[in-house]
Design a protein that fits this description.
Layout: H1 3-15, E1 40-45, H2 54-66, E2 70-76, H3 78-85, E3 95-99, H4 110-116, H5 121-130, E4 136-139, H6 143-154, E5 164-165, E6 167-171, E7 174-179, H7 189-205, E8 213-218, H8 228-239, E9 243-249, E10 260-262, H9 265-291, H10 294-314, E11 321-325, E12 330-334, H11 340-355, H12 358-368, H13 370-391, H14 395-401
Parallel strand pairs: 1-2, 1-4, 2-3, 4-12, 7-10, 8-9, 8-10
Antiparallel strand pairs: 5-11, 6-7, 11-12
Helix pairs in contact: 1-4, 1-6, 2-11, 4-6, 5-6, 7-8, 7-12, 9-10
């Protein structure tokens, strides 16, 4: 998410009227009302993305072909969505439509859209999660609007200050979860610490890493490298119960030295966009090399299985969607250019997120490490008291107390 989108999301939260007359408070546990058959129910934004609604509907149909414990609610213009569904054979008991009058376009201001378009597919889908009618929500639409709506309607998990977008990147050893990938342009040390907790849980329960190695993206491996924020985050993560392996230089990101890499959203988004650009350039180089002459074409015929495997590992549609970790609910954001395969895989990921009770595990991990934040506050208070004594502030209060 861009800096403008980040500010707009904050504005949407600040300016929007409350959902009810009650005073905003901590997030309330949501009781799922999903079907008695125990299937996971996912609301899917049928109108979000460059290829909606066709690719979204096709991806939903594909997902039901590989998962028999899934139900999907397509949220969007009912007539338009049903016209797309008419092209496919599917189980009508597992795939239904929830009408939404409005659509939030990709170029709309998130703050304006969230305030004004209460009948949009994003807003209605998020409300379905909040009301317990579905277990998760997925959208390939306006990222800023999805984030703002999730924060406003679902709110954050207790103990989480900022939600983060977690992107799965390919590495030499498998994969790495990078967070935050764009939700928060500016972060405090406590935010980075919380990202480490959330990323570790996601990697363990959704991606199958038994003891995820968590690294902090920095300009050097030494503990003294970085700015005040990263050094403070390093101290907190080191003292936590997660498997923290220290600072991780950018050059080591794709070598797989860490299963989770933590950074602020500004750095993470730039890292992601540079990676996408590099992958595209390498692909173009390979295409030029293999199509330039007869020798290149013959070489491609011999290397085709390896080239196809490389393309598969670099293809973002293999993952499908990125979770917005820290929200009191399961919310996944897919790439705006998502095709059917990407949507299908996003549904696979959302289903596993729900099945593995990821948010419960995040809350448990935060509780296990709650003393770290309290000790940090005590340390800050101690330093401030020391500074006041050095410059003579507060001396009168001490004498009066005596």
């Amino acid at each position: 998410m861009s800096e403008d989108q980040n500010k707009a999301a904050d504005e949407a939260i600040d300016k929007s009227p409350p959902e009810s007359a009650e005073e905003p408070g901590p997030a309330k546990p949501k009781e799922s009302e999903r079907a008695e058959d125990g299937k996971v129910v996912v609301a899917l934004d049928a109108m979000g993305g460059d290829n909606a609604p066709g690719a979204i509907v096709e991806g939903a149909v594909q997902a039901l072909e590989v998962m028999d414990d899934l139900k999907i609610v397509l949220v969007g213009n009912e007539q338009v969505v049903k016209d797309e569904l008419a092209k496919w054979e599917y189980d009508e008991r597992a795939l239904t439509v929830k009408h939404a009058d409005q659509v939030i376009n990709m170029d709309e201001s998130p703050s304006s859209a969230v305030r004004k378009k209460r009948k949009s597919s994003v807003h209605i889908g998020m409300k379905l999660v909040d009301e317990g009618q579905v277990d998760a929500f997925i959208s390939a639409g306006n990222t800023g609007a999805v984030m703002a709506a999730a924060t406003l309607i679902l709110r954050n998990l207790e103990g989480i200050d900022r939600a983060a977008i977690a992107i799965t990147l390919p590495t030499q050893k498998g994969h790495t979860v990078l967070l935050d990938a764009g939700a928060n342009v500016v972060c405090k040390a406590t935010h980075l610490y919380q990202f480490g907790i959330m990323g570790s849980i996601y990697a363990q329960y959704v991606l199958g890493d038994k003891l995820p190695r968590v690294g902090l993206l920095a300009i050097g491996e030494e503990n003294i490298k970085g700015n005040e924020t990263t050094r403070e985050a390093l101290e907190m993560l080191t003292r936590s119960s997660i498997n923290f392996v220290g600072n991780t230089e950018a050059k080591l990101l794709y070598r797989g030295v860490a299963d989770v890499v933590v950074c602020d959203g500004f750095t993470g988004n730039i890292t992601l966009k540079i990676s996408e650009s590099m992958a595209e350039m390498v692909g173009l180089f390979m295409k030029d090399m293999f199509t330039r002459n007869l020798r290149g074409k013959l070489s491609y015929a011999m290397l085709k299985p390896f080239v196809e495997n490389y393309k598969k590992r670099m293809d973002h549609s293999e993952v499908g969607g990125a979770p917005l970790l820290g929200i009191d609910g399961a919310v996944f954001i897919s790439h705006g250019s998502s095709g059917p395969k990407s949507i299908k895989n996003a549904l696979v990921g959302a289903r596993k997120f729900v099945r593995e009770n990821v948010n419960d595990h995040i809350s448990e991990s935060l509780a296990q490490n709650e003393d770290i934040l309290s000790q940090l506050q005590e340390k800050r208070g101690g330093l401030w008291d020391q500074m006041k004594r050095k410059i003579g502030l507060g001396a009168g209060d001490e004498q009066e107390s005596q």
